Amino acid sequence: MKKAAYLCVLASLCWALPSRGEVIDRIVAVVDGHIITQSDVRQEREIRTRLGEKTVESDKDLVRILIDDRLIESEIADYPGVDVSNADVSAYLQDSIAREGAPAQAMLDAVRRRILMQRVFDIKFRQSIRPADEDIRRYYEEVFVPEARGRGLNPIPPLSDPQMSKAVHDNVVQELMDHEVNVWLEAIRRRSNIEIFD
After folding, report:
1. Is the separation of the CB atoms in 111 and 93 below 8 Å?
2. CB neighbourhood size of 111 (10 A)
3. Please, what sign has the CA dihedral across residues 110, 115, 119, 121?
4. Tens digit of pLDDT for each residue in 22-67?
5. β-bridge partners, 196
6. E strands of the chain, at which residues?
7. Beta partners for 35?
8. Residues 69/110, Cβ–Cβ less than 8 Å
9. d(Cα 81, Cα 85) in Å, to the nearest integer?
């Protein structure tokens, strides 16, 4: 009797459920078994907007950024000594966004990941980058000066100015580091299992 009653209750529950399934979220990519969903894409877009980061118009481009972030996260697990404190996260938020109430946990986690990635990149790449004087001079003449003229900056500070020299040096180091990170990331992509769904 109990079994028959159980089957009746089960049948009535099944009858009450809608016949068509409702899609709440969908998988947009899988990276080495880790799922990235459409809601992850929406959340990343909101976080980037709040942090004042460069806008990524296309969802496909944002999915690729999330894939790269996942690959980087798996690699930086090899650096357990690198830590990010709550104070580091708070300072980053103070410098990056006009705070409107307490940030959500997803925002705090995203900022913590960004700081951690940057610190690992500094250890892995920046410390070994030593641009030559010729690289700095070329960047100043071919990149900085034309941009400064285009913006109407007058007078243009000379490269011999210590502040200008440091700014140009830092820009050259950042460009070289970005190149190194991209080469490293491309190698990781090649050995990873990545599926992207339309």
Report:
1. yes
2. 23
3. positive
4. 557 899 999 999 999 999 999 999 889 888 888 888 999 999 999 9
5. 29
6. 27-31, 34-37, 194-196
7. 30
8. no
9. 12
